[in-house]
Amino acid sequence: MTTGKTRVPRRLREQVAQTADYSCGYGRTPQRITGYRLSIDHIRPKAKGGQTVEENLWLACVACNEFKGARI
Fold it and tell me: How far apart are alpha carbons 28 and 17 in whole angstroms?
């Protein structure tokens, strides 16, 4: 059974996090304030043809990521 989640390689995840200054790309909340690791979001969702490449990845807190859902 698959969950629909894509594994983002550690190096790529770290690159996206550094570019985002370890802050949510939507609400700009720093990861250190949230108390948990921010997640990687596909700007163009995989369900709409988005790829797992740096240009399509964004760091997001859970609240922003869930609010965005499958929208672009």
Answer: 12
- If you search the block for the tokens 């740096």, which residue do you land on? 54
pTM: 0.80
d(CA 34, CA 54): 23
Distance CA 43, CA 52 (A): 10
Burial bucket for residue 61 (CB in 10 Å: 0-12, 13-18, 19+): buried
Domain boundaries, the chain: 10-68
pLDDT at 47: 87
